[in-house]
Amino acid sequence: MAHFNALASSWWDVNGPQRILHKMNLLRMDFIYQTVRNHLRLNPPETAVEDEIYIPPYGVDLLPDAIKKNIVAEQEQRRDEILENAKLTVLDVGCGGGILSESMARLHFIDSVKGIDLSEDVLQAAKLHRAKDPMFVNGKLSYQLRAIEDLPTTEKYDIITMFEMLEHVEYPSKVLLAALERVEVGGWVFISTINRDFISWFTTIFMGEHVLGIVPVGTHTLDKYINQTEIREWFESDPQRKEAFSVVDAKGCVYLPAYGWKFTSTPDVGNYFMAIRRMK
Amino acid sequence: MQDIVVIGGGPAGLSLLAALKSSPKTRHLSCTLIEGSSLQSVRDFLVEPPEEYTNRVVSLTPKSVEFMQQKVGNWDFIKQDRVRFYDNIVAYDSQDNDARIEFDATQIGAGVLAVMCENINIQSSLIGRLNELGMDDSTTILDNTKVIDITSPIHHDLDQHDLNEIDVNSGKSDLDWPIVKLSTGESIQARLLVGCDGYNSPVRKFAGIESRGWQYNTFGVVATIKMQYEDHRSIGWQRFLSTGPLAILPLSEDNATIVWSSTPWLSELLLKVNPDIFPHLINAGMTLEEVDLKYIYSMLDKDPNDFKVLDEIQWRLSKIDIKSLEENYPLPVVELIQNSRARFPLKLSHADTYVAPRVALVGDAAHTIHPLAGQGLNMGQSDVGFLVDALEKGIERGLDIGSTMVLDSYVANAWPGNHMMLGVCDKLHKVFTTDFGPVVLLRGLGIKSLNMAESVKDLMIKAISGR
Ligand SMILES: Cc1cc2nc3c(=O)[nH]c(=O)nc-3n(C[C@H](O)[C@H](O)[C@H](O)COP(=O)(O)OP(=O)(O)OC[C@H]3O[C@@H](n4cnc5c(N)ncnc54)[C@H](O)[C@@H]3O)c2cc1C
Ligand SMILES: C[S@@+](CC[C@H](N)C(=O)[O-])C[C@H]1O[C@@H](n2cnc3c(N)ncnc32)[C@H](O)[C@@H]1O
């Protein structure tokens, strides 16, 4: 038990070995929140005509400022209302010590979060830390030792997250496919991983493992890295998949030691986040 | 158990509570504010303000006013008939009354330089705003309640826990949340403890945050006074004496407030001088030469009730050209409001950081500043703004708001600006307490002085208006 305590404290020490993940969590929570928020359906089919809000066909940018301001304000208010009543379910795959799972579970529009991982140890650490916030007394956040492939396909989620784990698995496309099979129509799969390029090798393996020692040696192997273009091609390659899913966004990001994580201009280099939506 | 416990019901603490309850993102947080003294006079002020001005008056920057209007929403509850906007400060020397600098708001493209307002007016407007928002279970104010101790819970051995059950006993020590012990015998455990508890901040001590600075060996004597009649010029006056600056700042109608920075000896004298002599002493301080002032001080030192000084002052004032007296000086002070004199030690201090895990410092708990540019309370308002921004962002990101992952951005945004302001006011203090009058000094430097005078002027005007 002492071992798990130590593991829990080290996972959750924001100045400890997982500091990079804690810092990354800030940026990815922004990415998830903004993506979900910006793609809400503002006039769902059951909306009465008089309650519909106006969505300009060519976007708001062409409109005069005053009108644009009003329309944007109205849209933002509608987004707030929709989120106020939303009750989304989340599956966090490869949840580790629960950094992302806890954050998702605190959002008011999330109904429940299930974190799964293959390591008994990290799950114990996650549970220990969960017990330190009375907020989770309500049972909103649960953890399970399970591979995603072993969850029934009837169990569907509005949001599935797989952050910083695809680079650790033997067959990433299998895991991604398993996620696609378990996401609701209109729902989201969010992933993050690393491009297999020179910069990634240099920053994450060479610098991270060997020079800076911020991640344990052996954490990453270059041949498991997937380029974001490969994921896009993988979607294109299958007509059914192509029709059912859309890669809505991909953003590159980089860690600057004194600053934290920030988005870069291209998702093709180094680390990236990706948002995939199930359209039908 | 509370999400946020705020210690201190001064301007900073009440502003923070009202700002948290005004923001749609933080409104739901359970908050308790604890104040050691009674807030009854603050509540009474809201319903029935006293006739006379109270003696704690501050100069608010336009930025603070905007913050109160837009973010906190308490400006509507300010008793507007008791605030005074002013657009100009005239500063001059005891060494040469003709050496003057004018700080005019129009020079920086603004109509208003700053606003004079009583501390209690601000506090009561915040209570008004909180009442309007509705005091429900998630908003508690405990006044007449002192924090007697703050402790960190001992970490229990978590080994006993059955991890498949969520097991959190409220108020128990398996939470790393600080526990606040109250004079009423109650204890509250807080996810985030915010110290708005002033210069001696018990919260800062609990968190082990170092605060650096020094005493100026100077006291600020404040008083509320009446001028001969209402001055429609809306000017703040500041005269640099070798003992420190003396300022008269306008309030509504014929009221005004003074801040007389002075040596310990002079400040004691100012407090004990007969209340009927005091107004004349201010007139002397705003006008007469240092040698004359020294002579008058010495008379009063021997006998604070020596009405003969009135003749001495009157005779000297009568030698000054009446037209110049009317145009270039404040109106005569005619009355001291009873019991309105008080003195405060002036000091500079700045905490090394404003946060620790589950702790944040706001307002005077984090920094104290020389009042010559009237910034203390304004800096606290800007702190509140940055802290609420950080908490809103933390909530949007689903973080534990007690975590330094959330609080760090508060320090990053608030600290550097405050540090600069502290530095500016410290420099101004040093310039202003030279034995030479600073304005004379600047003028005496010839060609260069113009630029230098400009830069001191810029510093001052930026400091006062908070831009
Ligand atoms: C002479 C003078 C002139 C000034 N002029 C200006 C000006 O023109 N403009 C300006 O902006 N500022 C001015 N200031 C500064 C301004 O008054 C302060 O910055 C401001 O009042 C600080 O507010 P605060 O809420 O941070 O602290 P405070 O007002 O000090 O409030 C702290 C509160 O915490 C409470 N407290 C402390 N310990 C405990 C405890 N253990 N339990 C319960 N409660 C506790 C206290 O009772 C108090 O109410 C001036 C200051 C002085 C001295
Ligand atoms: C670097 S951690 C990331 C943790 C978490 N997702 C985050 O970003 O905060 C990678 C985690 O993925 C888990 N993992 C690796 N392969 C997995 C798999 N096939 N299925 C589920 N989890 C896996 C590991 O046990 C580890 O906890």
UniProtKB/TrEMBL annotation, chain A:
<keyword id="KW-0831">Ubiquinone biosynthesis</keyword>
<dbReference type="GO" id="GO:0010420">
    <property type="term" value="F:polyprenyldihydroxybenzoate methyltransferase activity"/>
</dbReference>
<keyword id="KW-0489">Methyltransferase</keyword>
<dbReference type="GO" id="GO:0061542">
    <property type="term" value="F:3-demethylubiquinol 3-O-methyltransferase activity"/>
</dbReference>
<dbReference type="GO" id="GO:0031314">
    <property type="term" value="C:extrinsic component of mitochondrial inner membrane"/>
</dbReference>
<dbReference type="InterPro" id="IPR010233">
    <property type="entry name" value="UbiG_MeTrfase"/>
</dbReference>
<dbReference type="GO" id="GO:0032259">
    <property type="term" value="P:methylation"/>
</dbReference>
<dbReference type="Pfam" id="PF13489">
    <property type="entry name" value="Methyltransf_23"/>
</dbReference>
<keyword id="KW-0808">Transferase</keyword>
<keyword id="KW-0949">S-adenosyl-L-methionine</keyword>
<dbReference type="InterPro" id="IPR029063">
    <property type="entry name" value="SAM-dependent_MTases_sf"/>
</dbReference>
<protein>
    <submittedName>
        <fullName>3,4-dihydroxy-5-hexaprenylbenzoate methyltransferase</fullName>
        <ecNumber>2.1.1.114</ecNumber>
    </submittedName>
</protein>
UniProtKB/TrEMBL annotation, chain B:
<comment type="function">
    <text>FAD-dependent monooxygenase required for two non-consecutive steps during ubiquinone biosynthesis. Required for the C5-ring hydroxylation during ubiquinone biosynthesis by catalyzing the hydroxylation of 4-hydroxy-3-(all-trans-polyprenyl)benzoic acid to 3,4-dihydroxy-5-(all-trans-polyprenyl)benzoic acid. Also acts downstream of coq4, for the C1-hydroxylation during ubiquinone biosynthesis by catalyzing the hydroxylation of 2-methoxy-6-(all-trans-polyprenyl)phenol to 2-methoxy-6-(all-trans-polyprenyl)benzene-1,4-diol.</text>
</comment>
<keyword id="KW-0274">FAD</keyword>
<comment type="subunit">
    <text>Component of a multi-subunit COQ enzyme complex, composed of at least COQ3, COQ4, COQ5, COQ6, COQ7 and COQ9.</text>
</comment>
<keyword id="KW-0831">Ubiquinone biosynthesis</keyword>
<dbReference type="GO" id="GO:0071949">
    <property type="term" value="F:FAD binding"/>
</dbReference>
<keyword id="KW-0503">Monooxygenase</keyword>
<dbReference type="GO" id="GO:0120538">
    <property type="term" value="F:2-methoxy-6-polyprenolphenol 4-hydroxylase activity"/>
</dbReference>
<keyword id="KW-0285">Flavoprotein</keyword>
<dbReference type="GO" id="GO:0031314">
    <property type="term" value="C:extrinsic component of mitochondrial inner membrane"/>
</dbReference>
<feature type="domain" description="FAD-binding">
    <location>
        <begin position="185"/>
        <end position="411"/>
    </location>
</feature>
<keyword id="KW-0560">Oxidoreductase</keyword>
<dbReference type="InterPro" id="IPR018168">
    <property type="entry name" value="Ubi_Hdrlase_CS"/>
</dbReference>
<comment type="pathway">
    <text>Cofactor biosynthesis; ubiquinone biosynthesis.</text>
</comment>
<dbReference type="Pfam" id="PF01494">
    <property type="entry name" value="FAD_binding_3"/>
</dbReference>
<dbReference type="InterPro" id="IPR000689">
    <property type="entry name" value="UbQ_mOase_COQ6"/>
</dbReference>
<protein>
    <recommendedName>
        <fullName>Ubiquinone biosynthesis monooxygenase COQ6, mitochondrial</fullName>
        <ecNumber>1.14.15.45</ecNumber>
        <ecNumber>1.14.15.46</ecNumber>
    </recommendedName>
</protein>
<dbReference type="GO" id="GO:0106364">
    <property type="term" value="F:4-hydroxy-3-all-trans-polyprenylbenzoate oxygenase activity"/>
</dbReference>
<dbReference type="InterPro" id="IPR002938">
    <property type="entry name" value="FAD-bd"/>
</dbReference>
<keyword id="KW-0999">Mitochondrion inner membrane</keyword>
<dbReference type="GO" id="GO:0016712">
    <property type="term" value="F:oxidoreductase activity, acting on paired donors, with incorporation or reduction of molecular oxygen, reduced flavin or flavoprotein as one donor, and incorporation of one atom of oxygen"/>
</dbReference>
<dbReference type="InterPro" id="IPR010971">
    <property type="entry name" value="UbiH/COQ6"/>
</dbReference>
<dbReference type="InterPro" id="IPR036188">
    <property type="entry name" value="FAD/NAD-bd_sf"/>
</dbReference>
